[in-house]
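R.M. (postdoc): so does anyone remember the format we settled on? I'll just put the structure tokens first.
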């Protein structure tokens, strides 16, 4: 992974589309947040691993906002993109939209930031390739991601002994 060439935001983007079914929901038909978070984690893994050209693991979920309910029968579109790459860690922004299939109406229902870490076969962190920023928006998101990463480092609890 350390020898992988720099990558672009565009090259590592990922999306997953999933129908919400009764096993994803509680007795009122609202989809469990955990079902949605599982898919957020999965699409973040795809994005980070595409960039790292290898295995990544989830280090943290940051600022998960559930903006509205999701119901059985709706189709969720999970879109993920890199916003920041450090030495071995990568921040992935995931935006989730819910679509009512019959009406075609779509709404933004979840926004999350996931920190993924590039690791070797033994699970030790390894350097991630640099991120090439191609647009002003990507540069702005990168600086915002850098600030969030610094805040996470500053407030992270010490590892258990």
């Amino acid at each position: 992974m350390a020898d992988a060439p720099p990558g672009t935001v565009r090259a590592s983007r990922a999306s997953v589309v999933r129908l919400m079914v009764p096993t994803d929901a509680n007795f009122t038909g609202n989809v469990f947040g955990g079902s949605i978070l599982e898919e957020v984690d999965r699409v973040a893994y795809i994005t980070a691993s595409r960039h790292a050209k290898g295995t990544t693991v989830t280090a943290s979920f940051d600022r998960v906002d559930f903006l509205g309910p999701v119901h059985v029968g709706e189709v969720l579109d999970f879109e993920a993109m890199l916003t920041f790459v450090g030495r071995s860690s990568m921040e992935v922004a995931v935006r989730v939209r819910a679509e009512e299939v019959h009406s075609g109406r779509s709404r933004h229902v979840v926004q999350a930031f996931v920190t993924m870490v590039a690791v070797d076969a033994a699970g030790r962190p390894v350097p991630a390739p640099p991120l090439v920023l191609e647009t002003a928006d990507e540069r702005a998101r990168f600086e915002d991601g850098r600030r969030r990463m610094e805040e996470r480092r500053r407030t992270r609890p010490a590892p258990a002994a």
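R.M.: ...and that's the designed sequence above, right after the tokens. Also worth knowing: The helical segments are 9-12, 33-52, 136-155. The two ends are 29 Å apart (CA to CA).
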